[in-house]
Write a structure and sequence with these properties.
The complex is a heterodimer of chains A (447) and B (48).
Chain A: E1 7-10, E2 16-22, E3 28-32, H1 46-57, E4 60-64, H2 83-96, E5 102-107, H3 111-120, E6 125-131, H4 148-158, H5 162-173, H6 181-194, H7 197-207, H8 213-216, E7 223-228, H9 236-244, E8 250-254, H10 267-285, E9 288-299, H11 302-309, H12 311-331, E10 335-340, E11 343-348, H13 351-365, E12 372-384, E13 387-389, H14 391-402, E14 408-411, H15 412-417, E15 425-432, E16 439-445
Parallel strand pairs in A: 3-4, 3-5, 5-6, 6-7, 7-8, 12-14
Antiparallel strand pairs in A: 1-2, 2-4, 9-11, 9-12, 10-11, 12-13, 14-16, 15-16
Chain B: E1 7-12, E2 15-20, H1 38-41
Antiparallel strand pairs in B: 1-2
The chains are: A alpha/beta (447), B mainly beta (48).
């Protein structure tokens, strides 16, 4: 079977990220493979190819090589990507293939960046799947590499040889398969095609200091964590610890000590992933989706004003601000969803009413000695109980963040929808919205 | 015809350089132009 064509996405800083898309399932899945990778050489290993094909049978599977590795642009060894840069690279790839939301499947060293992605971009993460990985790489017990310097030295001496591949397979990657000559030859060649020796050493050094534990509590997407009980690369106790700190995560423990997920019995892993994806797709189908205009407001310079006024007087100002905004929401039939700190998040059925409410709110709080900024966007939102989510909500929040004090800023979507309403707009230029694909033309409401 | 030799690395300062030795005649250093990849060179049957 032909392997998918490799394409390149361009990250914000101009670095090219190689990716492939395979399958046309109903949900996008970004496969974040650990260690050094090469998305073309993956397909040369029949069991690895079978593993990927199975994932692609129920998803649109997106593969990529991290910058500095595989088919992506080389970067200097001292500039291998941080977790944040790797996340940005995933977003660049998703943007290139028009993937608004995807299941993020992090394997092994791909785990921490997947954790951080799910925590940072919930609107773009359908669900998180972790296999053979933990959040904190600084606390790993890897008895096969007790001495990091010796391991680096070994990498420097042996990287790319069959001897090296065989030892890595025996010690942690797939113990018991070290005499599988096909696997040994493939791994040696795969690693050569994935990283140069210098890059391999630099990657390993960097990985020793990775810790994404702080992000675990911020994950609010469905999460599946799979570990093999005898895995020597990531001890099951630590896998359990990672799973226990993600709200609602499902932990599945499978027997055996083979770390590479496609070596040995791969079906139990794939069955778990497929079942998990199917389950939350059913849940998602029950979400209420509707078109709404979202309004975000925020008090400009609030930290400075609070310091000037002191806690008690500031609390009075906040109380008055809340009361006046709520008054405007009532007047214009807005639905208050949340107040975060000193801002409001509300939804409206109609965009023109939402804009008028925002304008009225700006005016209503002015004599309190404060200015608010307001941003609006119209799009499909998902309602679960009292909560409202979806990428349209993220866009609204990002638009509001760009507004100047006293300003009401709207996306081009909102402007286009209110044509004929008598509202006037001034072009506020094109902007990147953090965590959202494409560039967005924004407009200032001129009254 | 000689089988391709193993692919090895040597270090020049901070940089690892990849090389391959094939055959046992007099030493001949082959310096190809443009992009190349030692692993892939052998997968195309006609010499460039």
């Amino acid at each position: 079977m032909a392997i998918p064509e490799t394409r390149y996405a361009k990250a914000a800083d101009g670095v090219h990220i190689a990716y492939q898309v395979v399958g046309d399932g109903p949900v996008d899945m970004v496969f974040v493979m650990g260690w050094a990778t090469n998305i073309e050489a993956m397909w040369d290993e029949p069991d690895f190819a079978r593993f990927l094909r199975r994932l692609a049978s129920f998803s649109r599977l997106i593969l990529f090589d991290k910058r500095g590795l595989g088919l992506s642009d080389r970067v200097p060894d001292d500039r291998l990507p941080s977790l944040e840069t790797r996340m940005d690279d995933v977003r660049a790839v998703m943007d290139s293939v028009a993937s608004d939301r995807a299941v993020v499947f992090g394997v092994s060293e791909g785990g921490p960046m997947s954790i951080l992605f799910a925590a940072t971009y919930p609107a773009r993460t359908v669900a998180l799947v972790l296999y053979g990985t933990v959040a904190d790489f600084t606390a790993r017990h890897q008895d096969y590499k007790v001495d990091p310097a010796a391991y680096d030295d070994w990498t420097e001496r042996a990287w790319g040889t069959e001897e090296h591949a065989k030892v890595e397979i025996r010690d942690w990657a797939a113990p018991g398969f070290e005499d599988d000559q096909h696997l040994v030859s493939w791994l040696a060649r795969y690693l050569r095609q994935a990283a140069s020796p210098g890059a391999a050493i630099a990657l390993d050094r960097m990985n020793r200091s990775i810790n994404a534990s702080h992000a675990l509590a911020s994950i609010h997407v469905p999460t599946l964590v799979i570990g093999r009980t005898e895995d020597r690369d990531f001890a099951i106790e630590q896998v359990r610890d990672t799973a226990s700190r993600i709200s609602g995560a499902r932990l599945v423990e499978l027997p055996g000590g083979v770390h590479f997920p496609w070596v040995g019995p791969q079906e139990p892993i794939l069955d778990e992933v497929e079942r998990f994806v199917a389950e939350f797709r059913d849940e998602e189908a029950q979400l209420e989706r509707s078109l709404a205009t979202v309004l975000f407001t925020d008090i400009a310079d609030s930290t400075r004003r609070a310091a000037e006024l002191g806690d008690r007087r500031w609390a009075d100002v906040i109380a008055a601000h809340h009361a006046r905004i709520r008054g405007q929401l009532a007047r214009y039939s807005g639905r208050e969803i949340d107040t975060a700190g000193d801002g409001f998040f509300a939804t409206f059925d109609g965009p023109a009413r939402a804009i008028r409410c925002a304008m009225a709110s700006v005016g209503a709080v002015h004599d309190l000695g404060i200015d608010i900024r307001a941003g609006l966007h119209t799009g499909e939102v998902e309602t679960v109980g009292e909560k409202v989510g979806g990428i349209a909500v993220s866009i609204g929040a990002r638009v509001a963040a760009l507004a100047a004090p006293g300003e009401v800023l709207v996306s081009h979507t909102v402007k286009d929808l209110v044509a004929g309403s008598g509202l006037a707009f001034a072009d506020a230029g094109e902007h990147e919205l953090k965590g959202v694909p494409d560039r967005w033309r924004l407009y200032r409401v001129a009254g | 015809m000689a089988e391709p030799g193993p692919i090895r690395y040597t270090w020049n300062g901070a940089y690892a350089l990849v090389y391959q030795v094939t055959g046992d005649g007099r030493d001949l250093i082959y310096l190809p132009g443009w992009e190349q990849n030692l692993d892939w060179n052998w997968t195309f049957p006609v010499a460039w």
